[in-house]
Design a protein that fits this description.
flat, 0% strand, mainly alpha, Arc Repressor Mutant, subunit A
Length: 188
C-alpha cells in the first residue's frame, strides 16, 4: 500500500486572513444583511417551506407507490378506490396509510393544506368575538368595529345561501275544505 503525501501550497499563494475584530462594535449583526421585506423572510413563508421540507423527507422514507397510495387517500378516495388507482389491494392501502410513515405523511399533507387555506370562517368569527369582548371596556370603538365585522360575515353568508338577496319567508296556506267557511277580510 502506498501512502500519498499531502501537497503543501507555497506561502506566497495562500490568501492572507484578515485580522479578527477585537471589539463587538466592529461586527455587524446578521439581521443587517437580511431584507426584512423580502417574501422569503416572512414567518408564514418560512413555515410553509419548513412543512414542505418535512413532507419531502417523509416521502423519501416510503416507496413511490406507497406515497401515491397516501396521496390518493389524502385526496378523498377510500381504500378501495385508491387500490384500483394504484393497482394493489385495499388491505395494502390500509396498511400503508396506517403505518407510522404513512400516517405521518398524511398528517403533514393535511397540516400543509390547512396552512395554505388559512383561517376558516368559524376561526375568524371567534377572533372577532374575542376582540369585541377584550376591548369592550378599554376601547369601545374597536369593540364596535369587531361587532360590525361579525355582522358583515353573517350578511355575506346569508347572501351566499340566498342569491336573490331577499329573505325567503313562507306564509302558511289555509285550505278551505268546507264551503260554508268563506274567507273574510282578516284572512287576507
Amino acid at each position: 500500500m502506498r501512502i500519498r503525501k499531502r501537497r503543501s501550497t507555497p506561502a506566497a499563494t495562500t490568501t492572507p486572513h484578515l485580522p479578527f475584530p477585537d471589539e463587538d462594535e466592529d461586527v455587524l449583526p446578521l439581521q443587517e444583511f437580511l431584507d426584512k421585506n423580502h417574501p422569503s423572510n416572512d414567518i408564514y413563508m418560512r413555515s410553509v417551506d419548513h412543512v414542505q421540507r418535512q413532507i419531502m423527507s417523509q416521502t423519501a422514507l416510503l416507496r413511490p407507490k406507497q406515497v401515491q397510495m397516501v396521496k390518493c387517500v389524502f385526496n378523498g378516495l377510500n381504500y378501495t378506490e385508491s387500490a384500483l388507482k394504484v393497482g394493489c389491494s385495499p388491505s395494502t392501502v390500509s396498511k400503508v396509510v396506517q403505518s407510522q410513515n404513512g400516517a405521518r405523511l398524511l398528517k403533514l399533507l393535511q397540516y400543509h393544506l390547512n396552512l395554505l387555506q388559512g383561517a376558516n370562517t368559524a376561526q375568524r368569527r371567534n377572533m372577532a368575538w374575542r376582540i369585541a369582548v377584550d376591548n369592550e371596556q378599554t376601547d369601545p370603538k374597536v369593540s364596535l368595529q369587531a361587532i360590525k365585522t361579525l355582522e358583515d360575515i353573517d350578511n355575506r353568508e346569508f347572501k351566499e345561501k340566498n342569491p336573490q338577496g331577499a329573505a325567503v319567508i313562507t306564509m302558511p296556506t289555509v285550505v278551505y275544505a268546507n264551503e260554508n267557511l268563506t274567507p273574510t277580510v282578516l284572512d287576507q
